[in-house]
Protein 1
Amino acid sequence: MKKLLTEEIVAGAIQTLENKNEPVNATKIRVLLGFGAHKTISDMLATLLGTKPPAEDPAAAEAFQSLWQAAVAKGASINAAKIKELETAIAFLDGENERIEAAREEAAGRLEKNQTTVEKLVTDLTLAHEAAAEARRGQEAAQSALTREREQQRQEAEALRRQLQEADTARREAEIKAARAEGELTAILKTKQ
């Protein structure tokens, strides 16, 4: 809440400053109180001490006005230079923003293209893995069929070997029987002669 400045508060401040043997003026009172407008404190101080605030000196007012106009002109000049500098900086930053945006769009395009390439490579790799797996299954099936065929050929060769042995044994037996029969026939023929 804003404090209300009263003559009693200003009178108390005057008393405090006099007790400390400090000069009494509006600035000291303002510092001591920590609030209040300088003009209001000056007016109350004049009323309480029975004095009038000093009249304004026309020469001082003219000097102040001249100084003020010079300061305003200098400030305007500095501000114009700063505004020009800021406009140049803004133009540069606008250019940089456009360059960055163009670079970002280019990078986004490259990223999208790379993404598409990566997706295609992943698809190709997946297809290659599937083809390799299919080829492996085909190779395993062929190997299995070859193994079965070899086993079947081995069994057939074994059966043929047995048949050949049996035929050879039968041939030998037939030769032996033929030789016996021939010997018997020869013996019979000799006895009949």
Note: Helices lie at 7-19, 26-33, 38-49, 58-192.
Protein 2
Amino acid sequence: MRRDNDRRKATVFIVFALFILWGFGWNTVGRRLLTSIDGVIVVRRVVPSATEYTVRGDDGSEKVFRAGATDASLPGSMPVGTRIRKKLWHLDYERDGRRESFPWIMYSSVLGIALSLVVWGILILRSQPPKPLHENNRRRVSGSLRCISQHII
């Protein structure tokens, strides 16, 4: 009984931690790292649950990107005429020449806790001996194997 509770607890730890790693890791930090934009905002349009910006680069090309309500994107409150520069694989960005930082301490803490939960859950699962087959299952398996072997021969 205790073994089943430990396995259940470990599974809950791992599933919860993977959800946190996805939400805070990939869905927030990952998207922020993959954002790359450099230019001046020429159009700002509010759409449902986001702000859509058109940014004109130094070479005259225009790029459209969306800013949502999470830390994964840049803020949705920048006015037209704002110069923004966000490099690929950087969490911070420049807004009119000022560096705007990312709350990396909070995200590092949350991701560290989630990773610890995954490791803890794996250690709990590995510390448990394998669950033995019940006698009924052994007969059923051996009988099935006997039937299969007779059909093959």
Note: Helices lie at 2-34, 104-127, 135-152.
Protein 3
Amino acid sequence: MLKMSKCIFISLLFFNSLWAASQISNLWTGYAYWSYDNSPMRCPLMKVKFSEDEGHFNREMGFLDCDMLGMELPPFSLNKNSKGELFSPQGVNVGLITSDSLEMEEAYDENVKIKVSMKSKGNSADYLETWYKNSSPKEIIYVIKARLFKGGSFEKLEN
């Protein structure tokens, strides 16, 4: 009986280790600074929710509330391979997700790109989003730096 339960336990460990969601997959709540022309504005609330499964990485929702100014982060879904590489629906490699970090680039439109970096440290994460013109040399439009924490709810602050 002991040998059988040991085999089942080892099998469960093996199959559970084949795929595990990264620490990035979560609802994150925190604060941010939105810098435009090197003038940072404090944003008391930023929320973003990421999820993933074996073949996809998703941003389910997100928003940034800077009192007088706000921004919605629209949902998107990327394809993901077994190495954590992220691909647009058109098959273009746009980033990488690991057990504790995210690096990706998305197109806002044909002239503007958004580079996102996120590094999880347990229950908190550092988030950096850089919007830049797709020109040579790259001209930064604005930068969002955030300190995020796991948890919260989907509701926004009501003014």
Note: The helical segments are 2-17.
Protein 4
Amino acid sequence: MVELWLRGAGEEGLRLVLRSTARTSAVLFAGAFAAPALRTFFQSGDSLLLAFLASQFIHLVGVISLAVIRHRPTMLADPPGIVAYTFVAIMVLRLILESVGSVPQWLRRAESISLYGFWVIITGAFAHFFPGIRRIPLHYLILAILVAALVVRVRTALAARGVWKSETLAHSSADVH
């Protein structure tokens, strides 16, 4: 929002807000996505998730504002964006229900699917699979952070299920040498 005050709410100011919130959201999402594995660093992954959701809300306001300024409401009919914000809505619903009581198991599963689905969309955006996103070196760093978050999350999930054990890794690496 500081960017809007500095540059004004014109198209260029909104584009700057969109770029800033997209990058901020990606890094916050990576932290929230990997949070179950990083409990020693973060007491609650929900605080990172909440920060990510706030950044996404600002991003959404920027997208809507840009569509209004350009007089192009069809900008809002972006399939990856619609799916991504559906995933965001599921995450918000889980947080709300958890704050007022219990969360149904189906919603926890839906949130898990949403987290992975959002990861695919945001990683695809920073990997330049979608048009309109400029290629800059910072995007490759963000992409690496997102991939690292996936590796950490999947490794932790596999370890929790007993599929990934450090002894197994030690034996397989000994067999290679």
Note: The chain has one domain: 2-176.
